[in-house]
Structures are given as structure tokens and as C-alpha cells.
């Protein structure tokens, strides 16, 4: 075996493979992201381009509100124990820090790319009938050359019947996972991504966790990833659990998917129930941007209310789905904050304990029930001692909770009453 | 029969030495050790007092015969005679028959019986059967204030001595006692009692401690507000705030103090004398009481106190803002206010950090060899977990794996599953049939 | 052990399979050795590992081969390495080389074996059928004549 034959055989294979990959990205009939039932009119839409278009991206980022407290920076379990830091800040400084955190959050909320799945068809590179039954199992060859990336790594399969073919996306990614391990990325997809367990996780409002893990586990153009995320998006839409995905990095692709499939009324209703008119209008604008031949027309200078009203007028068939929105538009009534509390309960319950403890005393509430005296503040007047003022020392009471049982408290009260008499 | 009365009365006069002396007196002649004998150490080898009348008391029998003057009072009327048999129920008869056995059993159980119930390892205290370090319950109520939810720990019991003019060296038991309700209230005191009265000393200490209650502000109800340094005599204490779930990593006596106060997460390094527990307690408590809360800090500095938690990716959250003082702005800020907050506590002192010494065996040949022998199995556990997760093996027990292998072997030999063949595997040749 | 030769500059390098793994579980590394004459069992002899080969099929009935083609090309093209037959077979199957004759022999043998087995199973099936037919033919009259 000399070098010349190797070179020639490699030369023979290499262009074939690269040509095949190019072919898979360019020629396509319809998008996997558009469901057949939604609308069959638009076939040749390049959703990858559409998703990164400037105005679409802007609408999507506007729709994804940034909830620092309860969503982006909610308390998470960290790998190492670390104590929290304390700092002294002025208002300006605090605002500056918050702004920096908002910047960070924007980076955190960068959207998961929406990509067309790779084609599942494979290309036969060589066929050798003489080689039939040389072995009972397939041979999978992976090129582990140092500079190959996960995307352009060559993986070929020799079938038992002697054909040599390129690997399909599933095999390709599996080989990547086998030879290039990463933490929490096992070789086989975890059972969480398939149904009994997936549904259990979704029932527990763990949508974000599942989506995050699937992002880590799959490539964005993996057919399995596209299928899984569509499944989760559909279930969110069915069960009206929009709160689990708002202000996460999956919200952009979620809204985009809904708009592509002409499926926005439930989300509109969700925005409407909070009285977020601009979001409603943006959503309708997005739908228009994604589907230019949509019946609703939006003029340049239309106000937000007009856009929404036009939409309601022209889509009477959705009337029963957008009850809250209609209620808001017609009566100006927003759903109670209680509902919000209830909906975000899944997220809050992990937070709740901490938040209650951190009830803060400010000059506004120091005299009220929320202050340090709690219900005692109704009985006794609270005076705040200025630092330079004359000392009425017992005016500001320290927080009294947890100081033993009734006897103590009663004794304290008695002494206070005595002082009052004096 | 003539009266026995005069006989009884004259017994002490007529009989010999053994009859003249009482039992205890007689025993004393056998078992006593003289003062000089004690000095020579004869106390250890003296004879014990033997309970001779343990099984059979004179005059007692299963039939319960009453001998007047021996085990029954003398009766003046002579009608019934001097002997009489008391009436017994069947149970009493049975009891008296098994009397010896019963006494023997009692003796056995008495030896085995422990006089204190077994304590949980976490409540056993610092050593063995001593009270030091054990939970002692709530102190008694004082002036109508009850300490129901308090818990007391004794940190130390020691014998102190004092030289006096009259009595010479006088010893006293002294007990250091801490009591607290686990929610910030606590007190500590030293109780004293005469020598060997350990329990009395502890009880006195409990009483004193419950009169000296102080209150410690706890951050989030579990840890200290800021790192501090405190000292007393030759004991230096460096305490550090720690995150939730860290636990108490400190001197064993400090652990008890923290439990009494209600601190749940703390790291304390003690330098200098670690055995002067009173100084240690005093230093630690002084440090705790000298803390300032976030609210106080905000008042003093005129700035927001902002918490940045790693679990929230360091999102700033105000925990306290000044109420009585005007909030400073960037213009009115002094250079001092711009410094890092953590650098102020501890007065510029830092505990000595020593790297943990390796155990003596870490470089021994046998140990290295053992480590090398374990080396092939370093990934076994993660592999096991992965195989179970992927449903390759149902259970990771020896039996389950053997069964699985057996099953595969069977499937291969019967031809259900093809035998793996090919490159890199040895060829399988069927056995020749003769 | 003191080395008598410096492996790096000794003789003509050879690419072969180094058997690792444990009892009843073979696993190979595709390695470059300093010379064919030197042993393969000794890990100090390995110049470079250029791939792995798992001869036992996995759950999905695949035998996994990983090859560092860049380094293989270097060793074969520039250093003129000798290649052992199993590695040649693997390279042939992967499409880098023409298929090795031994693979064809293997294929032929396997096909013969499979044909043989099929014949055997057909014969067995026919025999079994015959037996059942016989039983039926013998059993039918017996049921009709209970005597």
C-alpha cells in the first residue's frame, strides 16, 4: 500500500461527502417547523433566515420581558457552596449594578437558534457486493482527527451487506457524544426526553429544565431536538402554561414557532390578561412579519390598540379563546394579581421562604404592620430616633419575634406599659 | 412448759463473746482497717461483709412456723402454745418455695441493670458517662419566668482549689454551663459546689446562667452577620459567616454554644489557648454581642446594605437601608465608604491557615500499592450508574449480574443471539465429534 | 527497565492493535509501535495511539472504530509505517484503503456458514414436519379406534 492510492481514495471520498452536506442545507421543500395542519400555503420559507432577520429579532426580544427576580436570576442550586457577598451602595451605584445585571440577563436570554433539522437521508459512498455478510454487525468509523469539529467530523458506516454510507444525524451525534464526552451529556438520550417521564416533568412545570438540557444534549439542527422542542411548545400552548417559559431563552423560538403555525390567540390572551397591550401588538406584528400574506393589514403608524382591535375584528373565530383580552380591551379590566401569584406559584415556591425572611424595614413601613413591631404597632406609636435627636431610647423596637414564649412577651409588654404610665 | 421469758432476758448475761456482741460489731472486727493500715494500702484487701442471713433467716421456713420469741412476739396467754403455724394461701406457699431462686435472680439482674439509660450518640456528650456536653434540659423557672424551650449544656466541670488560713487547701467543683433557646437568647455562667458535688455545681450553674441571658442577633436566623475577631486572655477567636447548610465547623465547646444560641452555619478558628473554656466562651460571646446588624450598618454608614447571593448570580438585593439617616449620594461619599466591606471585620487579623498534613501512611509502599490496585476500578461506580440508567443491567447485585451473564450465555449457545465474530476476536471452532 | 534502544528512532514503525481491556472483554487501541520486532504488550513501546476499536458490538449492534486519519496518513505516508493485517482490514472497511483480501475471505466463509445453517434449519424443519405428520397419521386412527 503506497501513499498514492491513499491519496486517490481519500480524494475520491472527500468531495462526495462535502457535496452531500452542502446539498442538505440548500435544497428544501417545506420547513419542519411549520406543521402541515397549520397552513399549507407557504412552502418555500427559509425559517433560519427569517428567524435572524432584524425586525423579527427585535420583536422577539421585546416580547421576552426580563424578570430578574423570579426568572433569570432566581435562586438556583450552585455546584459549590459560597456565601453571599454584602456591599454598601448608594442609589446610583445600585442602579448601575442593576443595569449591569440586566445586561448580563440579556446575554443569558440569547435565543436558542431555530434551525432546520438535518436531513435524515444518507448517501451511499461505496457498494461492494463481494463483501456481503463479512460481519454480523455494522462498523461505525469515526474520524477523531484533532482539528475536526463536532459538525464537520467524518463518520461513516459499513453495513453488513457491504455498502459504505455516511452516518445519519442520530449516529453522527451519538459518535460525537461517545468520543467527546461532556458532563451531563450521556451517550444515549435520557428517558426524560421520552414520554412518561417527559409528561411527569412538564406536570411539575420543569419545562425550562427539560429545554435547557435538550439544548445541551442535542445540536440545534438535530431532528430529535426539533421534534422534542416542538412537542414541549405544543404542550405549553395546550395547557396555557405560558408563565413557565416567559423570560427564558426559549421564549423567542417558542413565539416564533407559534407565529409560524398561526397559533397565537392563546398567547395573545395571556398577554391581554395582564393588560400588556404593547406585547399583544408586537405579537401581531410578529405574525405579520413571519407571514407576509396574512390577511390582517398593519399600517406603519397604527397605534397598538388599533392593531389589536383590527386583529380581533378580523379573527372572529378566535373569540372564545381570547376572553381575557376582550375583557381588557372592552372593559379595561386586568385579571387580578392573585391569578398571577397562582400561576407563578411553581417558580415562587422555591423562592418563597427566602423572600419572606428578607422582609425589609424602610422608612416607609417602619411604622406600619410590616415594620419590626408587627401587630404591636397598632397599639403603640412608633417614633424613629434621628441620630442627632434627643434620645427616647425605647422608641425604636428591635424585632421581637423568636424571643421565647408567652411569658417573656407578656413581661415585656408589662414593662412597656409601666413606662407609659410613668 | 416453763416460761421462756426469763431465758430470753438472761441471754446476754450467760452466753459467750459471740452472743454478747451485735452482728455489726462482730463484722467490724473482721473488716475494719486501722488508720495506719489504710496508709499501707490494706483498705483494698479487707474482707467484705458477707450477707449470711440472705437466703435463710433464722426461724423461717416454707411452712411459716411461728416460734414465739424467735420470729413472733411472745404472747402472755399460753393457750395456743409457743409454736403455731400461720395460715397461707397457695400463692404465698409457692412464693416462699421459690424464694431462694428469686433472690438469686434478683441478684443477677441487679448486677446487669444499668443505672443510666443508653443515650443517642449525638447526645452522649464529650466523654463516656460524664455529664459534660450532654443536653441537660431547661433551667428552673426564675421569678415566674419559665425557660421551657431552653436547652442547657455543661461545657466543663473542674476541681478548683483555694489555699485558706484555717482549712488549708480547699477544693471546690466549678461547672461552666451554657443555656439558650436556639433562637438568639442564651446565657452562660459558672456554678460552684463543694468537692465531689458535680451535679450540684451544674445545677447552680444552670440557675446562674438563666439569670444572665443575653440576646444575639442572627443573620437569617442561622449565622452571624459578619466575620469577627475576639479575644479573652490567651484565647483568640476568628469566626466567619458561612452559607446555608454549611453546618458548625468549630471547637466542640463552641458547637454546644452555637447550638444553645441557635447558630447553624459558622466556621470558627480558635488560636492560642483552646483549653481555657471560660475564656473561649467569653471571647466568642463578646464577639457575637459586638456584631452590628445590617440595619445598624446601614444607619451608621448612611448607605444601602446590598446582598449579592451566588445562587442568584450575584443579583443585588437590598437587605437594609437607613431609616433615621439621610442616604448618601455619590458626591457625598467618603473614600472610606468605597472600600470592600469584608476587609473591615477582624481588625486586620487573619487566622493562620495551615495545609492539612498528610497522614503518615500516605507515602508508605503498601498504601501506594493498594491505591494502584484500586486504580482499575476508579470508574466503576459511574459506569455502574450509567449501565443501570441505560437499562443494560436490571440490578447491580452479584446475583443479578450472574443471572444476566448466564442468560446471555444460554442465548448464544442456543443460537438465538449470534456469537460476536470478526476482526480482533478469536475464531470459534465447534468441538470435534469423535 | 533500561531501554536498549530509543523507540522513537528504531526501525520501521508499525501500526497495529494493542489489546487492552480485561478478562472476556477485549478492547483494542490502534497504536504505532517502533518496530514489528518489539512487543506490543508493553505500554512503553507505544509511540502513539491513533485510534480505538471495540470488537464487541454495542446495544445497537454496531462495532465502533475511531481512527485519527490525520496521524495515520502521517505515519503511513511520511514514515512509511508497516500496517498489520487487522488494521489493514479496518482501514479497508472504512474506505481509506481498498478492501483487504482477508475481508473478502471472511465474507465468503461467513456466507458459506450462513448458507450451511439455513440448509440445516430447512432440513430440521422438514424433519419436524414429517414427524408431526407421522404423529398425526398414527394418532388419528388411534383416536377413532379407542380399543
TrEMBL record, chain A:
One Pfam assignment: MRP-S22
Origin: domain of life: Eukaryota
Region (Disordered) residue spans: 385-422
One GO cellular component term: mitochondrial small ribosomal subunit
GO MF annotations, alphabetized: structural constituent of ribosome
PANTHER family: MITOCHONDRIAL 28S RIBOSOMAL PROTEIN S22 (PTHR13071), SMALL RIBOSOMAL SUBUNIT PROTEIN MS22 (PTHR13071:SF4)
Protein name: Uncharacterized protein
Origin species: Caenorhabditis remanei
UniProtKB/TrEMBL annotation, chain B:
GO BP, sorted A to Z: translation
Domain of life: Eukaryota
Short name of any one Pfam family annotated for the protein: Ribosomal_S5
Listed InterPro entries: Ribosomal_Su5_D2-typ_SF, Ribosomal_uS5, Ribosomal_uS5_C, Ribosomal_uS5_N, Ribosomal_uS5_N_CS, Ribosomal_uS5m_N, Ribsml_uS5_D2-typ_fold_subgr
Compartment list: Mitochondrion
Residue ranges of every copy of the S5 DRBM domain listed in the record: 150-216
Keyword Mitochondrion tagged: yes
Primary residence: mitochondrion
Cellular component, GO annotation: mitochondrial inner membrane; mitochondrial small ribosomal subunit
Keyword terms: Mitochondrion, Ribonucleoprotein, Ribosomal protein
GO molecular function: RNA binding; structural constituent of ribosome
PROSITE patterns for this protein: RIBOSOMAL_S5, S5_DSRBD
PANTHER family xref list: MITOCHONDRIAL RIBOSOMAL PROTEIN S5
Family: Belongs to the universal ribosomal protein uS5 family.
Complex and partners: Component of the mitochondrial ribosome small subunit (28S) which comprises a 12S rRNA and about 30 distinct proteins.
Protein name: Small ribosomal subunit protein uS5m
Annotated source species: Caenorhabditis remanei (Caenorhabditis vulgaris)
Automatic annotation (TrEMBL), chain C:
Start and end residues of each stretch annotated as Disordered: 127-147
Presence of keyword Mitochondrion: yes
Biased composition (Polar residues): 134-147
Subcellular localization(s) per the UniProt record: Mitochondrion
Keyword Ribosomal protein: yes
Alphabetical UniProt keywords: Mitochondrion, Ribonucleoprotein, Ribosomal protein
Gene3D superfamilies given in the database record: 3.30.1320.10
One Gene Ontology MF term: structural constituent of ribosome
BP terms from Gene Ontology: mitochondrial translation
Family statement: Belongs to the bacterial ribosomal protein bS16 family.
Protein name in UniProt: Small ribosomal subunit protein bS16m
Organism name: Caenorhabditis remanei
Amino acid at each position: 500500500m503506497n501513499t498514492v492510492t491513499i491519496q486517490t481514495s481519500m480524494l475520491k471520498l472527500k468531495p462526495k461527502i462535502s457535496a452531500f452536506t452542502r446539498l442538505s442545507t440548500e435544497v428544501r421543500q417545506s420547513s419542519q417547523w411549520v406543521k402541515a395542519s397549520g397552513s399549507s400555503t407557504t412552502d418555500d420559507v427559509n425559517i433560519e433566515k427569517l428567524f435572524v432577520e432584524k425586525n423579527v429579532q427585535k420583536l422577539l426580544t421585546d416580547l421576552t420581558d426580563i424578570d430578574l427576580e423570579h426568572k433569570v436570576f432566581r435562586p438556583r442550586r450552585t455546584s459549590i457552596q459560597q456565601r453571599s457577598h454584602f456591599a454598601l451602595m448608594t442609589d446610583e451605584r445600585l442602579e448601575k449594578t442593576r443595569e449591569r445585571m440586566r445586561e448580563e440577563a440579556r446575554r443569558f436570554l440569547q435565543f436558542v437558534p431555530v434551525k432546520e433539522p438535518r436531513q435524515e437521508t444518507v448517501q451511499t459512498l461505496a457498494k461492494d457486493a463481494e463483501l456481503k455478510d463479512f460481519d454480523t454487525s455494522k462498523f461505525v468509523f469515526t474520524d477523531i482527527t484533532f482539528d475536526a469539529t463536532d459538525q464537520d467530523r467524518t463518520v461513516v458506516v459499513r453495513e453488513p451487506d457491504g455498502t459504505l454510507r455516511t452516518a445519519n444525524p442520530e449516529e453522527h451525534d451519538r459518535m460525537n457524544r461517545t468520543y467527546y464526552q461532556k458532563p451531563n451529556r450521556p451517550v444515549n438520550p435520557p428517558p426524560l426526553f421520552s414520554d412518561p417521564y417527559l409528561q411527569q416533568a412538564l406536570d411539575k412545570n420543569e419545562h425550562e429544565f427539560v429545554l435547557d438540557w435538550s439544548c445541551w444534549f442535542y445540536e440545534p439542527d438535530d431532528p430529535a431536538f426539533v421534534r422534542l422542542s416542538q412537542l414541549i411548545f405544543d404542550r405549553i400552548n395546550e395547557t396555557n402554561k405560558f408563565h413557565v417559559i416567559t423570560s427564558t431563552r426559549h421564549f423567542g423560538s417558542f413565539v416564533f414557532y407559534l407565529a409560524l403555525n398561526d397559533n397565537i390567540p392563546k398567547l395573545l390572551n395571556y398577554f391581554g390578561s395582564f393588560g400588556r397591550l404593547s406585547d399583544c401588538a408586537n405579537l401581531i406584528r410578529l405574525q405579520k412579519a413571519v407571514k407576509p400574506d396574512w390577511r390582517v393589514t398593519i399600517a406603519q403608524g397604527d397605534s397598538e390598540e388599533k392593531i389589536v382591535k383590527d386583529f380581533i375584528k378580523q379573527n372572529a373565530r378566535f373569540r372564545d379563546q381570547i376572553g381575557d383580552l376582550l375583557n381588557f380591551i372592552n372593559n379595561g379590566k386586568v385579571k387580578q394579581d392573585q391569578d398571577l401569584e397562582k400561576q407563578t406559584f411553581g417558580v415562587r415556591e422555591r423562592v418563597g421562604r427566602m423572600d419572606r425572611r428578607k422582609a425589609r424595614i424602610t422608612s416607609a413601613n417602619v411604622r406600619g404592620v410590616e415594620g419590626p413591631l408587627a401587630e404591636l404597632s397598632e397599639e403603640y406609636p412608633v417614633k424613629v430616633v434621628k441620630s442627632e435627636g434627643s434620645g427616647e431610647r425605647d422608641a425604636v423596637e428591635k424585632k421581637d419575634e423568636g424571643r421565647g414564649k408567652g411569658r417573656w412577651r407578656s413581661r415585656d409588654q408589662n414593662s412597656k406599659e409601666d413606662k407609659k404610665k410613668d | 412448759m416453763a416460761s421462756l421469758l426469763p431465758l430470753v432476758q438472761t441471754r446476754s448475761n450467760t452466753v459467750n463473746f459471740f452472743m454478747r456482741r451485735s452482728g455489726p460489731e462482730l463484722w467490724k472486727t473482721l473488716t475494719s482497717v486501722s488508720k495506719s493500715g489504710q496508709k499501707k494500702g490494706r483498705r483494698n484487701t479487707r474482707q467484705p461483709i458477707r450477707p449470711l442471713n440472705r437466703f435463710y433467716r433464722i426461724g423461717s421456713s416454707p411452712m411459716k412456723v411461728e416460734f414465739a420469741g424467735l420470729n413472733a412476739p411472745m404472747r402472755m396467754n399460753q393457750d395456743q402454745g409457743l409454736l403455731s403455724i400461720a395460715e397461707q394461701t397457695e400463692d404465698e406457699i409457692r412464693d416462699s418455695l421459690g424464694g431462694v431462686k428469686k433472690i438469686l435472680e434478683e441478684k443477677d439482674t441487679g448486677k446487669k441493670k444499668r443505672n443510666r439509660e443508653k443515650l443517642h450518640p449525638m447526645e452522649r456528650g464529650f466523654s463516656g458517662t460524664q455529664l459534660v456536653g450532654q443536653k441537660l434540659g431547661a433551667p428552673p423557672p426564675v421569678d415566674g419566668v419559665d425557660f421551657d424551650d431552653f436547652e442547657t449544656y455543661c461545657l466543663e466541670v473542674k476541681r478548683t482549689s483555694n489555699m485558706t488560713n484555717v482549712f488549708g487547701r480547699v477544693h471546690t467543683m466549678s461547672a461552666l454551663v451554657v443555656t439558650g433557646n436556639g433562637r438568639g437568647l442564651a446565657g452562660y455562667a459558672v456554678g460552684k459546689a463543694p468537692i465531689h458535688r458535680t451535679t450540684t455545681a451544674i445545677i447552680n450553674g444552670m440557675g446562674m446562667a438563666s439569670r444572665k441571658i443575653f440576646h444575639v442577633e442572627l443573620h437569617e436566623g442561622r449565622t452571624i452577620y459578619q466575620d469577627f475577631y475576639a479575644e479573652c486572655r490567651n484565647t483568640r477567636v476568628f469566626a466567619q459567616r458561612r452559607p446555608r447548610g454549611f453546618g458548625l465547623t468549630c471547637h466542640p465547646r463552641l458547637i454546644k454554644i452555637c447550638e444553645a444560641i441557635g447558630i447553624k452555619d459558622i466556621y470558627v478558628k480558635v488560636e492560642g489557648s483552646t483549653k481555657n473554656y471560660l475564656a473561649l466562651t467569653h471571647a466568642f460571646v463578646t464577639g457575637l454581642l459586638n456584631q452590628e446588624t445590617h440595619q445598624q450598618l446601614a444607619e451608621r454608614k448612611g448607605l444601602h446594605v446590598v446582598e449579592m447571593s451566588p445562587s442568584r448570580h450575584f443579583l443585588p438585593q437590598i437587605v437594609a437601608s437607613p431609616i433615621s439617616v439621610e442616604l448618601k449620594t455619590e458626591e457625598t461619599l467618603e473614600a472610606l465608604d468605597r472600600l470592600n466591606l469584608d476587609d473591615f471585620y477582624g481588625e486586620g487579623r487573619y487566622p493562620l491557615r495551615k495545609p492539612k498534613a498528610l497522614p503518615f501512611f500516605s507515602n508508605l509502599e503498601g498504601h501506594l500499592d493498594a491505591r494502584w490496585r484500586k486504580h482499575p476500578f476508579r470508574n466503576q461506580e459511574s459506569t455502574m450508574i450509567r449501565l443501570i440508567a441505560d437499562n443494560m443491567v436490571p440490578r447491580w447485585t452479584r446475583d443479578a449480574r450472574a443471572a444476566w451473564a448466564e442468560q446471555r450465555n444460554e442465548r448464544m449457545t442456543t443460537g438465538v443471539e449470534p456469537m460476536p465474530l470478526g476482526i480482533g476476536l478469536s475464531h470459534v471452532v465447534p468441538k470435534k465429534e469423535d | 527497565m533500561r531501554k536498549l534502544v530509543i523507540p522513537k528512532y528504531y526501525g520501521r514503525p508499525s501500526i497495529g492493535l494493542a489489546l487492552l481491556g480485561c478478562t472476556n472483554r477485549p478492547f483494542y487501541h490502534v497504536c504505532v509501535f517502533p518496530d514489528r520486532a518489539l512487543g506490543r504488550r508493553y505500554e512503553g513501546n507505544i509511540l502513539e495511539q491513533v485510534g480505538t476499536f471495540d470488537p464487541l458490538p454495542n446495544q445497537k449492534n454496531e462495532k465502533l472504530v475511531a481512527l485519527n486519519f490525520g496521524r495515520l496518513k502521517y505515519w503511513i505516508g511520511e514514515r512509511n509505517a508497516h500496517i498489520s493485517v487487522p488494521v489493514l482490514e479496518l482501514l479497508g472497511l472504512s474506505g481509506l484503503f481498498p478492501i483487504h483480501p482477508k475481508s473478502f475471505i471472511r465474507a465468503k466463509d461467513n456466507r458459506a456458514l450462513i448458507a450451511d445453517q439455513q440448509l440445516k434449519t430447512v432440513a430440521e424443519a422438514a424433519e419436524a414436519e414429517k414427524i408431526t405428520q407421522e404423529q398425526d397419521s398414527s394418532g388419528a386412527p388411534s383416536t377413532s379406534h379407542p380399543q
